[in-house]
Amino acid sequence: MKDIEDLIQKAVELQSNGLITAQIADELNISRETVVWLLTRSKKEETTPAPKDISVNWSSIGKSAKRLHNVSLALCDMVLETMEKINAEVDVVVGIAANGIPLASMMAYELDADLAIYHRKGQESVKTGHRGIISRNFGSVAGKNCIIVDDVITTGSTSTEVIEQLKEMDAKPRVVVVLVDKKGVDTMHNVPIQSLVRIARLD
Question: Where are the transmembrane segments (predicted)?
C-alpha cells in the first residue's frame, strides 16, 4: 500500500467483508484509532489530524515459506540469547493468532519446544473484561517457560493481555518476540521485548 488512499480502501474493504475494528487493525498492522480515522475519512466525515501511526506491510515475508523460515531463525537467535541470560530453557512457543502463528510454528520446531496458540476475542473483549484463550488443540502452558510470538507490537495491548493470561494459568512468560516493535519499550510487565526492527518516532 503506497499511500493513505490505499490504506483507506483496504480498511473499507475489510470492514465490508465483516471484520471489526480490532481485526482490521491486526490485518493492516496499525492501531485501532488509526482504523477508525481511516474509516471515517472514507466517508468524508474526518476533519481531525491523522493519528501518529505507521503501517507495516510484511507480505513479502509472509508469502514465502522460505523467508518465514529464515526470519524465524533470526527470532530464535534472539530468544536463545535472552534465555541464556536467565539460564532457562524454552518449553512452549505461544503464537498469537493469526499473524504470529506461522512464525511460532517454525520457531517451536527449531527450538524443539511445544507450540501453543493464543486466540484473541477482539475489541469487544476490552469492554467486557474478557480476554482470549489458549487453544486446547495445541500445547499446554501451565508451569512452563513460554515465549510469546507476534508480528507487530503497536500499542502493546495484545502482548500485555497474553502475558497476564499466561501468568493466571501459572505459566512463565519469559520473552515477547516480534518482527516490528512500534511501541518502543524494553519490557512489558517485567517481560523483555525483542524485535528485529524497532521503530522510533522523532518528534
Answer: none
Q: 7: pLDDT confidence band, cut at 50, 70 and 90?
A: confident
Phi, psi of 45, rounded to the nearest 5 degrees: -100, -10
β-strand partners of 114: 92
- Residue 185 to residue 163: CA distance in whole angstroms: 15
CA distances to 56, 113, 175 from 145, in Å = 29, 10, 9
Query: Of the segments 24-33, 138-147, 153-162, which one has the largest average pLDDT value?
Result: 138-147
Distance, CA of 123 to chain centre: 15
> How far apart (Å, rounded) are the C-alpha atoms in residues 25 and 27?
5
Q: Distances from the Cα of 141 to the Cαs of 15, 75, 81, 93, 181, in angstroms?
A: 34, 20, 21, 9, 25
pLDDT (mean) for 144-156: 95
Task: Of 96, 101, 102, 106, give the one whose Cα is nearest residue 173.
Answer: 96
Q: Determine the straight-line distance between the first and last CA of the chain, rounded to whole angstroms.
A: 24
